[in-house]
Amino acid sequence: MTSDITERAWTPEQDGSWDLATSYRLCESFVAGQVLADLADHDDRIAVLTADLKFSNRTRDFELRHPDRFVNTGICEQNMVSMAAGMATCGYVPYVATFASFIGLLCAEQIRTDLAYPNLPVRIIAHHTGISLGFYGTSHHATEDIGITRSIANLTVLGPADAVSLGEVLRQTVDVEGPVYFRIGRGRDEDVYGRTGARFEFGRLTTLREGTDAAIVATGVTLAPALRAAEELAREGVSVAVVDAHTLRPFDAEGLCELASRVPRILVAEEHNVYTGLASACADALVDGGVGGVRLHRLGLPVDEYALIGPPTRLYEHYDLDTAGIVRRMRNLLA
Amino acid sequence: MLIRATVDAWKPAAEEPADLVEEVRDLALFIRRETVRLIGIAKSGHFTSVFSCAELLAALYSGVLRVSEDPAWPDRDRLILSKGHCAVGLYPVLANLGYFPHEWLDTYTRVGSPLGDHPDMRRVPGTDFSSGSLGHGLSIGAGMALGNRMAGRDDSRVWVLTGDQELNEGQIWEAAQAASHYRLGNLVAVVDRNQMGLDGTTEEVMSVEPIAGRFESFGWEVTELDGHDARGVLSAFAAVGSEPEGRPKCVIANTRKGRGVPYMDLSRTWHLGYLEPADAEKTLSLIERV
């Protein structure tokens, strides 16, 4: 047996068991390193920093092509964020990448004070967000980061669901003036945009499927099961729209109110605590827009619990964040 | 008061030490007097934290820092006030440099003023980074030093003024290891060793010694000096070379919190304070030319 788990053989049957080798083999949606390397071929401003995770997040792909613009800060996330701020004042557009829990939570103050307050063009690639690190436990989960980042002025917050949308959103935001927080999954996220052919447009809610009885608003890892849930419900004669809320801040409040005027029920599915996340953003939009009469159901991690230990796929099942769970919740909402 | 303010005028400090020593002493006196005046507007402020670093700031802006009439000159030396609460002492110097109108000083801390207790890089020309949260400045400086080197700006140095109690912050040591690992010879940490935090002496509150030993063990080149001796500060700062790759430099400036006003000297109670107008007048007359 090789000691390098990135070299171990992988078989499809392993999916669901979520061992580490499986995770590495399936990380085809970790395209950030590749996309940034391509962008950096023609853009001298782009630099990448990571905190001893270049193999996990594939920023190694960037290092191989642009070693002079790659910085490994070691396990030192707060220093990494502040260093990126300093580099940004020198004309660089630094991308810092590490686990969401160790940046969206651990570095909240550095993000606020050193990036957002001076409005510097630093990009945060917060990967393995939500409960996607499964049995690693609460220390490695990030179910509060939408709430934290959504309340930081000047910060753009994005939750692309798959490799296509991640690549697209990276390309569409290179010239955003201030800081950007990319909330992404574990790199084995199921393709949605490639399959549906939908056009990704930064800043607006993207409708992947039209519907009249209800709508599911999802972000990140919940988008693919939301789409499958809608397909399943369609077979029962229920018409459910699926909307991707990839841009969490600034939130497309107008788009959400418009959606609420077309469907009587909205289910919000997110890999986040049901407080302060996407559901709260939707509720804010409805209140601010004076839109009443729509039933909003929040599906996410319970308010007062930390997630159980377990393989991520099993946890999604447990918390109704998989296809079957979303179908069940939607049936309840429609009942 | 004139400060050398153009690129053409910039010369290493060592070339004309005699004149510069007097210039630094004058400027330090001016900083202390302006600090008392401006805190009078705010009715609350950090007197003693400015007084301890008055000679350090004065020396930096008397021919040490490479600055120009353009505060955004890309090849400039940068200064980060990691101890951001001494900004009230820097604003008058930046106004003298012509970076903003002197009238701004009269609005210090008033609603909508660009000038607050802690500096804002987006609102105050000449401020190289917004600061206030202690412990961040050295990381930001390390990022700037690395960025400057990557961009080929080899003559540009980054100076970070830190407090001494601030060295309790863990992020300082994260930055110290990164600066050493990346051989940021263009980074200079100046520690205002004024002996005190808010609650008492540093060694009572949470010890920071041995500062020199700690930085040395992290791979830094360390110099110690009397931070109130204008001549010594000037010559030590002048000796700091500009090398994009090498050991980062730490200058430990031994100072006294509150130096320059006898009743504030090493006084815990004047970290944050307010002087009634009559007391402010009296204090202005007591300020020593150190």
Summarize the entry for a quick read.
Chain A has helices at residues 20-25, 32-41, 60-65, 77-88, 108-116, 145-150, 163-172, 193-196, 223-235, 253-262, 278-288, 312-318, 323-334, and strands at 46-50, 70-72, 93-99, 123-127, 156-158, 180-183, 206-209, 214-218, 240-244, 247-249, 265-273, 295-301.
Biggest interface, which chains?
A: A-B, 29 and 32 residues
Largest sheet of chain A: 7 strands, mixed
- The number of domains of chain A is 2
The fraction of residues assigned to DSSP E strands of chain B is 5-15%
Alpha-carbon Rg of chain B, integer: 18 Å
Q: How many strands in all of chain B?
A: 5
Give the strand line-up of the largest sheet of chain B: 1-2-3-5-4
Which whole number gives the mean pLDDT of chain A?
91
Low-confidence stretches of chain A: 1-17
What is the CATH architecture term of the largest domain in chain A? 3-Layer(aba) Sandwich
Radius of gyration of chain A: 19 Å
**Mean pLDDT metric of chain B:** 93
CATH class membership of the largest domain in chain A: Alpha Beta
Instruction: List the quaternary state of the chains.
Output: heterodimer
Unreliable sequence segments of chain B: 1-14
| Secondary structure: helix percent of chain B | 25-40%
Q: N-to-C terminal Cα separation of chain B, in Å? A: 18 Å
Structural class of chain A comes to alpha/beta
Q: How widely separated are the two ends of chain A?
A: 53 Å
